[in-house]
Structures are given as structure tokens and as C-alpha cells.
Design goal:
By secondary structure, the protein is mainly beta. About 5% of the residues lie in helices and about 45% in strands. It contains one helix and 14 strands; from the N terminus they run E-E-E-E-E-H-E-E-E-E-E-E-E-E-E.
Length: about 250
């Protein structure tokens, strides 16, 4: 498994992978072999982005190149992981990341990124140049509008709930749900699900094509007349998402 440690400056994460190391000790003429569990840090930098030529013939500095939600190394190495979960079967799992990318101009963007192991796809272009072992399968970008009067205006992210998984009858995880509260006073509940494109495909096979869907439900306060003199505003200030027993 992988362990993600967020950097203090918010610029990505340190990614550790669990390993078992064989150790040999020799003493009193006897050789003893043991195994020790530990972690190793993965190199997730990958190849440096190529410089782009600007309109005046000058090269654009690499730092100006925005990280991409479509590249696993960028998501894990250059963005903030806000929530992580997984779904799928015991044979084939997908990792679900809710991430935030901060840009040099102060702008922030968010996305739901779904990844899977690329061990069955050794020729994946994305896997070359890094040792993560993950590739991006699907990206859902959270739509944002700077116009405060727009229906899609959210403001900044204020808080986020833990991700809640829903189990299927066979014990596999069929969907993941989490919620966000925004400074505009609205709240969002996102539901991520995965289904086979063809019903006769093997759900445990990594090669079986899948369709990912992300739905969003938006909530906002709507106090009645009796609450007008009690509440200062109708903004949503907190929320939680729980899983009900079957």
C-alpha cells in the first residue's frame, strides 16, 4: 500500500510505499535471516515538463506550467490531497482522490480523480519516468464561476466531510460519497460510482471497460419567515455525510 504525507507548504505530498526487507546477521558462527517491515519514498517527480515558447520567442519558465489532473505524478506530487478512498472488488480496486491545485495567480481548482494500478499496462506512457504504479482513469473537474451571481459560484472551499463508502451485496464497494461546504454559503454532495460498460464482462478483470460517473447535489439554506429574525444569514456553515445501515 501507499502512504501519503502532505508537505507543510501545501506543494504536493511525500509518497511512501510499504516494503519488507531481508536482513542477514552473522554471529557466533551462525547466520540468521530475518525480515523487517519498513517504508521507502517513491520518486514521483517524473520527467520535467518541456518549456513552451512564448509569443515573443522567449521560453516560458517550467514553474509557469500548471500541473495536470490527468497525470498521476502531478496529482500526487504537486497537489493537495483533501480526501482519499477506494472502491471496486477485492481483485481490482480504484483509488478516489479529491484534490486541490493551487496556481501562481492565487487561483484554486478542484477535481475528483480516479486512478488504478498500471501493473497490467506496462506500456502506459504515464507510468514511464516515475515509480508510483498508478495511472489516471477518470477526472471530474469541479465547475467554478467567478461571478458571485452565477448559479455555479462557490467561493473558496470551507470544509469537507470524510468519504463514505457504500457496499454492494457481494461485499465490494459500489460508490463513494462526500460533501463540501463553500464560502458562498452553499454545500455540495458528490457521489462517485463505477459500472461495467457491458453487463457480461468480468467485474474482477482489470481489462473490463468501466464507466465512471460523478453526480453533484447542491444544498442551500432557505429559512422560513419565523427564522428571519433569528438567523443572521441562510448560509450553510457545516455538514456531515453518514452511511445508514442496510
Amino acid at each position: 500500500g501507499l502512504v501519503f504525507l502532505g508537505r507543510a507548504d501545501g506543494g504536493g505530498n511525500v509518497v511512501l510505499r510499504g516494503v519488507v526487507v531481508r536482513e542477514e546477521e552473522t554471529g557466533d558462527g551462525k547466520e540468521e535471516v530475518g525480515y523487517v517491515e519498513g517504508f521507502e519514498e517513491l520518486d514521483i517527480a517524473g520527467p520535467s515538463p518541456k518549456k513552451e515558447e512564448g509569443g515573443d520567442g522567449m521560453d516560458v519558465d517550467d514553474v509557469a506550467v500548471r500541473p495536470s489532473f490527468d497525470v498521476a505524478a502531478d496529482v500526487l506530487g504537486k497537489m493537495s490531497l483533501l480526501a482519499v478512498s477506494e472502491f471496486g472488488t477485492s481483485e481490482h480496486c480504484f483509488s478516489v482522490f479529491f484534490v486541490q491545485a493551487s496556481h501562481l495567480d492565487g487561483e484554486e481548482s478542484h477535481a475528483v480523480v480516479i486512478m488504478s494500478s498500471d501493473s497490467h499496462d506496462g506500456d502506459s506512457k504515464e507510468s514511464k519516468g516515475n515509480s508510483i504504479g498508478l495511472r489516471v482513469n477518470y477526472v471530474h473537474r469541479i465547475k467554478q464561476d467567478d461571478d458571485s451571481k452565477s448559479a455555479h459560484y462557490r467561493g473558496k472551499l470551507s470544509s469537507i466531510t470524510p468519504m463514505v463508502c457504500e457496499a454492494s451485496d457481494d461485499g465490494s464497494t459500489s460508490s463513494v460519497t462526500f460533501g463540501c461546504v463553500w464560502t458562498s454559503g452553499v454545500a455540495s454532495v458528490f457521489n462517485i460510482s463505477s459500472n461495467l460498460l457491458k453487463q457480461d464482462e468480468d467485474a474482477n478483470s482489470p481489462s473490463s471497460p468501466r464507466k465512471f460517473e460523478v453526480s453533484e447535489s447542491i444544498f442551500m439554506g432557505d429559512p422560513g419567515e419565523e427564522d428571519v429574525n433569528f438567523y443572521d444569514s441562510n448560509h450553510v456553515v457545516g455538514m456531515d455525510v453518514i452511511s445508514l445501515p442496510n
